[in-house]
Design brief:
- By secondary structure, this protein is mainly alpha-helical.
- It has one domain: Cytochrome Bc1 Complex, Chain D, domain 2 (Orthogonal Bundle).
- The chain has helices spanning 19-23, 27-36, 68-80, 113-123, 135-146, 223-228, 235-242, 246-256, and strands at 45-48, 53-56, 157-158, 171-172, 180-182, 199-201.
Length: 259
Protein backbone atom coordinates (compact mmCIF):
# COMPACT_ATOMS: atom_id res chain seq x y z
CA UNK A 1 0.00 0.00 0.00
CA UNK A 2 1.30 3.43 -0.91
CA UNK A 3 0.27 6.44 1.15
CA UNK A 4 -0.55 9.47 -0.98
CA UNK A 5 -0.62 12.81 0.81
CA UNK A 6 -2.63 15.40 -1.08
CA UNK A 7 -3.66 17.76 1.74
CA UNK A 8 -1.21 19.50 4.03
CA UNK A 9 -2.68 21.59 6.85
CA UNK A 10 -0.93 23.51 9.58
CA UNK A 11 -2.44 23.25 13.05
CA UNK A 12 -2.34 25.39 16.17
CA UNK A 13 -2.80 23.17 19.22
CA UNK A 14 -6.13 23.73 20.92
CA UNK A 15 -5.98 24.68 24.63
CA UNK A 16 -7.21 22.10 27.14
CA UNK A 17 -8.43 24.40 29.91
CA UNK A 18 -12.14 24.41 30.76
CA UNK A 19 -12.94 21.30 28.74
CA UNK A 20 -14.44 19.55 31.76
CA UNK A 21 -17.23 22.13 31.62
CA UNK A 22 -17.82 21.45 27.94
CA UNK A 23 -17.82 17.68 28.55
CA UNK A 24 -20.42 18.14 31.30
CA UNK A 25 -22.73 20.15 29.04
CA UNK A 26 -25.66 18.02 27.78
CA UNK A 27 -25.89 17.18 24.09
CA UNK A 28 -29.35 18.72 24.16
CA UNK A 29 -27.78 22.14 24.74
CA UNK A 30 -25.82 22.00 21.50
CA UNK A 31 -28.74 20.52 19.58
CA UNK A 32 -30.90 23.42 20.81
CA UNK A 33 -28.22 25.94 19.82
CA UNK A 34 -28.14 24.46 16.33
CA UNK A 35 -31.92 24.61 16.07
CA UNK A 36 -31.95 28.28 17.03
CA UNK A 37 -28.77 29.28 15.18
CA UNK A 38 -29.11 32.36 13.00
CA UNK A 39 -25.78 31.66 11.34
CA UNK A 40 -26.39 28.10 10.19
CA UNK A 41 -24.37 26.24 12.81
CA UNK A 42 -24.97 22.51 13.17
CA UNK A 43 -23.86 19.68 15.41
CA UNK A 44 -21.40 17.06 14.21
CA UNK A 45 -22.89 13.69 15.14
CA UNK A 46 -19.93 11.35 15.63
CA UNK A 47 -19.29 7.80 16.80
CA UNK A 48 -19.21 7.60 20.58
CA UNK A 49 -17.26 4.40 21.25
CA UNK A 50 -18.38 3.89 24.85
CA UNK A 51 -22.02 4.75 24.17
CA UNK A 52 -22.12 2.57 21.06
CA UNK A 53 -24.01 5.21 19.13
CA UNK A 54 -23.56 8.63 17.59
CA UNK A 55 -23.58 11.60 19.94
CA UNK A 56 -22.70 15.29 19.64
CA UNK A 57 -19.08 16.08 18.84
CA UNK A 58 -17.62 18.77 21.09
CA UNK A 59 -13.84 18.55 20.84
CA UNK A 60 -11.29 19.09 18.10
CA UNK A 61 -11.20 21.65 15.30
CA UNK A 62 -14.06 19.83 13.55
CA UNK A 63 -15.97 18.83 16.71
CA UNK A 64 -15.06 15.30 15.65
CA UNK A 65 -14.74 13.84 19.17
CA UNK A 66 -17.72 13.48 21.55
CA UNK A 67 -16.18 13.08 25.02
CA UNK A 68 -13.01 13.95 26.89
CA UNK A 69 -12.39 10.25 27.55
CA UNK A 70 -12.50 9.44 23.86
CA UNK A 71 -10.43 12.55 23.17
CA UNK A 72 -7.74 11.22 25.54
CA UNK A 73 -7.76 7.75 23.96
CA UNK A 74 -7.66 9.17 20.44
CA UNK A 75 -4.75 11.48 21.31
CA UNK A 76 -2.87 8.67 23.05
CA UNK A 77 -2.92 6.64 19.85
CA UNK A 78 -2.63 9.30 17.16
CA UNK A 79 -0.35 11.79 18.89
CA UNK A 80 1.79 9.47 21.02
CA UNK A 81 1.42 6.05 19.38
CA UNK A 82 0.02 4.48 22.56
CA UNK A 83 -2.66 1.88 21.89
CA UNK A 84 -5.45 1.56 24.46
CA UNK A 85 -8.76 -0.30 24.91
CA UNK A 86 -10.83 2.11 22.79
CA UNK A 87 -8.09 2.53 20.18
CA UNK A 88 -6.29 -0.86 20.10
CA UNK A 89 -4.98 -0.83 16.53
CA UNK A 90 -1.63 0.67 15.64
CA UNK A 91 -1.49 3.13 12.76
CA UNK A 92 0.30 1.70 9.74
CA UNK A 93 3.72 3.40 9.35
CA UNK A 94 3.55 5.70 6.32
CA UNK A 95 0.43 3.77 5.32
CA UNK A 96 2.35 0.50 4.93
CA UNK A 97 0.58 -2.01 7.17
CA UNK A 98 3.15 -4.71 6.40
CA UNK A 99 5.56 -2.78 8.62
CA UNK A 100 3.42 -3.67 11.64
CA UNK A 101 4.99 -7.14 11.52
CA UNK A 102 8.07 -5.52 13.08
CA UNK A 103 6.16 -3.87 15.93
CA UNK A 104 8.19 -4.66 19.10
CA UNK A 105 5.15 -4.17 21.36
CA UNK A 106 2.09 -5.48 19.51
CA UNK A 107 -0.09 -5.87 22.62
CA UNK A 108 -1.97 -2.96 24.21
CA UNK A 109 0.47 -0.28 25.33
CA UNK A 110 -1.99 1.06 27.92
CA UNK A 111 -4.73 -1.02 29.52
CA UNK A 112 -6.72 2.17 30.14
CA UNK A 113 -5.12 3.62 33.26
CA UNK A 114 -3.18 6.22 31.32
CA UNK A 115 -6.22 7.33 29.35
CA UNK A 116 -8.26 7.61 32.54
CA UNK A 117 -5.55 9.69 34.23
CA UNK A 118 -5.26 12.01 31.23
CA UNK A 119 -9.04 12.40 31.18
CA UNK A 120 -9.09 13.29 34.88
CA UNK A 121 -6.32 15.83 34.34
CA UNK A 122 -8.16 17.56 31.48
CA UNK A 123 -11.49 17.42 33.28
CA UNK A 124 -10.20 19.38 36.23
CA UNK A 125 -8.29 22.07 34.33
CA UNK A 126 -10.14 25.27 35.23
CA UNK A 127 -11.35 27.70 32.63
CA UNK A 128 -9.31 30.91 32.46
CA UNK A 129 -10.59 33.79 34.54
CA UNK A 130 -11.63 36.97 32.80
CA UNK A 131 -8.94 39.61 32.44
CA UNK A 132 -9.25 43.17 33.77
CA UNK A 133 -12.13 45.08 32.22
CA UNK A 134 -12.25 48.74 31.32
CA UNK A 135 -14.89 51.09 30.00
CA UNK A 136 -13.39 50.46 26.55
CA UNK A 137 -13.64 46.66 26.81
CA UNK A 138 -17.18 46.81 28.22
CA UNK A 139 -18.24 48.99 25.29
CA UNK A 140 -16.43 46.57 22.99
CA UNK A 141 -18.66 43.66 24.00
CA UNK A 142 -21.66 45.61 22.73
CA UNK A 143 -19.84 46.14 19.43
CA UNK A 144 -19.08 42.39 19.40
CA UNK A 145 -22.78 41.66 19.74
CA UNK A 146 -23.87 44.33 17.25
CA UNK A 147 -21.73 43.08 14.36
CA UNK A 148 -22.96 39.51 14.84
CA UNK A 149 -19.93 37.80 16.39
CA UNK A 150 -22.07 36.51 19.28
CA UNK A 151 -24.23 34.48 16.88
CA UNK A 152 -21.45 31.86 16.83
CA UNK A 153 -19.24 32.91 19.74
CA UNK A 154 -21.97 32.37 22.34
CA UNK A 155 -20.96 33.96 25.63
CA UNK A 156 -22.69 31.76 28.19
CA UNK A 157 -23.44 28.04 28.49
CA UNK A 158 -24.33 25.80 31.44
CA UNK A 159 -23.38 22.28 32.45
CA UNK A 160 -25.88 19.60 33.44
CA UNK A 161 -25.69 17.11 36.28
CA UNK A 162 -22.22 15.95 37.29
CA UNK A 163 -20.82 13.88 40.13
CA UNK A 164 -18.05 16.49 40.34
CA UNK A 165 -19.31 19.42 42.40
CA UNK A 166 -17.28 22.01 40.49
CA UNK A 167 -18.91 20.88 37.22
CA UNK A 168 -22.45 20.30 38.47
CA UNK A 169 -24.95 22.78 36.98
CA UNK A 170 -22.35 25.47 36.49
CA UNK A 171 -22.57 28.51 34.23
CA UNK A 172 -19.47 29.24 32.16
CA UNK A 173 -18.39 31.65 29.45
CA UNK A 174 -16.55 30.01 26.54
CA UNK A 175 -17.68 32.41 23.78
CA UNK A 176 -18.43 29.50 21.48
CA UNK A 177 -21.44 27.45 20.41
CA UNK A 178 -19.12 24.47 19.65
CA UNK A 179 -21.07 23.95 16.42
CA UNK A 180 -19.80 23.35 12.91
CA UNK A 181 -20.04 26.32 10.55
CA UNK A 182 -19.29 26.51 6.85
CA UNK A 183 -16.37 28.93 6.80
CA UNK A 184 -15.78 29.00 3.05
CA UNK A 185 -12.16 29.72 2.22
CA UNK A 186 -11.24 29.61 5.92
CA UNK A 187 -11.91 25.85 5.95
CA UNK A 188 -9.06 23.34 5.81
CA UNK A 189 -10.36 20.82 3.21
CA UNK A 190 -10.22 17.99 5.75
CA UNK A 191 -13.24 15.81 6.49
CA UNK A 192 -13.67 14.48 10.04
CA UNK A 193 -16.75 12.62 11.19
CA UNK A 194 -19.59 14.35 9.38
CA UNK A 195 -17.59 17.58 9.17
CA UNK A 196 -16.95 18.78 5.62
CA UNK A 197 -13.80 20.42 4.33
CA UNK A 198 -15.14 23.96 4.60
CA UNK A 199 -16.62 23.42 8.06
CA UNK A 200 -14.90 24.32 11.33
CA UNK A 201 -16.04 24.23 14.94
CA UNK A 202 -16.46 27.67 16.47
CA UNK A 203 -13.26 28.29 18.38
CA UNK A 204 -13.82 29.26 22.04
CA UNK A 205 -12.52 32.76 22.77
CA UNK A 206 -11.88 32.33 26.50
CA UNK A 207 -8.20 32.81 27.21
CA UNK A 208 -7.79 34.76 23.96
CA UNK A 209 -5.53 37.29 25.68
CA UNK A 210 -2.88 34.58 26.07
CA UNK A 211 -2.79 33.72 22.34
CA UNK A 212 -0.45 35.36 19.82
CA UNK A 213 -1.31 33.28 16.73
CA UNK A 214 -4.93 32.89 15.68
CA UNK A 215 -7.19 30.60 13.62
CA UNK A 216 -6.74 26.85 13.25
CA UNK A 217 -3.46 27.19 11.39
CA UNK A 218 -1.98 30.18 13.20
CA UNK A 219 -1.89 32.23 10.01
CA UNK A 220 -3.13 35.39 11.71
CA UNK A 221 -0.86 37.31 14.04
CA UNK A 222 -3.36 40.07 14.88
CA UNK A 223 -7.01 40.05 15.85
CA UNK A 224 -7.79 42.20 12.82
CA UNK A 225 -6.26 39.57 10.52
CA UNK A 226 -8.19 36.79 12.25
CA UNK A 227 -11.53 38.57 11.93
CA UNK A 228 -11.08 39.66 8.32
CA UNK A 229 -10.11 36.09 7.34
CA UNK A 230 -13.61 34.87 8.28
CA UNK A 231 -15.64 33.67 5.31
CA UNK A 232 -18.73 31.62 4.54
CA UNK A 233 -21.20 31.83 7.40
CA UNK A 234 -18.83 34.25 9.13
CA UNK A 235 -18.73 36.66 6.19
CA UNK A 236 -21.60 38.90 7.34
CA UNK A 237 -19.97 39.54 10.72
CA UNK A 238 -16.63 40.07 8.98
CA UNK A 239 -18.12 42.67 6.65
CA UNK A 240 -19.86 44.42 9.54
CA UNK A 241 -16.53 44.56 11.36
CA UNK A 242 -14.73 45.98 8.33
CA UNK A 243 -17.35 48.74 8.12
CA UNK A 244 -16.77 49.83 11.74
CA UNK A 245 -15.13 53.10 12.62
CA UNK A 246 -11.59 52.99 13.97
CA UNK A 247 -12.95 53.87 17.41
CA UNK A 248 -15.38 50.95 17.45
CA UNK A 249 -12.69 48.57 16.18
CA UNK A 250 -10.50 49.68 19.09
CA UNK A 251 -13.36 48.96 21.53
CA UNK A 252 -13.89 45.50 20.05
CA UNK A 253 -10.17 44.75 20.27
CA UNK A 254 -10.12 45.85 23.91
CA UNK A 255 -12.99 43.48 24.66
CA UNK A 256 -11.32 40.53 22.94
CA UNK A 257 -8.08 41.22 24.78
CA UNK A 258 -9.95 41.02 28.06
CA UNK A 259 -11.08 37.41 27.47
Amino acid sequence: MQLVVNIVVRRRTTPLFGLGLVDATPDSTFIALAASSTSGGRVNMVDNIRAGTKTVGKFGWKAQVPTLFQFAGDASLNEMGVTNPDFPNENCPQGNCAELAFNPAPSLNDIGNGVAALTDYMTMLAAPTRGPQTAQSIAGEQVFNNVGCAACHVATLATGSSTIASLDHKTYHPYSDFLLHNMGSLGDELEMGDGAGAEMRTAPLWGLRFIVHYLHDGRATTLDQAITAHDGQGAAARDAYIALSAADKAKLTAFLQSL
